Amino acid sequence: MSDDIQGRGRLRDASVVVARDAHGLVAVLSAEFPRHGGEYLFLPGGRREPGEDDETCARRELREEAGVTAKSWRALGSYAISLDATARVHLFEARDLTLGPQELTPTEQHFELAWWPMEEAIDAAGKGRFLLPAGPLALLLAERPGQVPGFM
């Protein structure tokens, strides 16, 4: 695949967020994906809008999809979406959360939010319950032993 995927234009960078509340629970979304054969889990995230940087995109997606704002942010890393694309997925961890209403778009109305213990979310990733790789990778990077939280 190239950056021009089926004539839809250049892929945009994306951000994905591991949002952890004061009890260590993680915001996990679920939805039916009939094209892929069932219900899957995913973390809040999505494509960058024009004029956004990676963290601004992460903040917007967390607010829209989970109804959450965060005071503390830590970058976890990034990776290329595919070998043929220059677009990247940027992973973040968010803490010091404030909960509010979800701001779902019409295509996101079926997104269900739940708060999972980190261990159970990682276990679900190992069982193939996440459709895309960004969520499991972000969960694992957020749980790296010996990491000193570098929250901003």
Description:
This protein is an alpha+beta fold and 152 residues long. Helices cover 20% and strands 36% of the residues. The chain contains three helices and seven strands. The chain has helices spanning 54-66, 118-126, 134-142; strands at residues 14-19, 25-33, 38-42, 45-47, 68-80, 88-99, 112-117. The strands form two sheets. The chain has a four-stranded mixed sheet, with helices on both faces. A three-stranded antiparallel sheet has the order 3-2-7. Strand 2 (25-33) and strand 3 form a beta hairpin. Mean pLDDT is 89; it is low at 1-7.
Briefly, what is this?
The protein has 152 residues and is of the alpha+beta class.
**Shape, per Cα inertia axes:** globular
Topology as H/E string? Answer: EEEEHEEEHH
Count of DSSP strands: 7
The helix content, as a percent range, equals 10-25%
Percent of sequence in beta strands = 35-45%
Compute the CA-based radius of gyration. Answer: 15 Å
Mean pLDDT: 89
Distance between the termini: 36 Å
Largest sheet: 4 strands, mixed
* Widest sheet: strand ordering: 4-1-6-5
Query: From the helix content, strand content and strand pairing, which structural class follows?
Result: alpha+beta
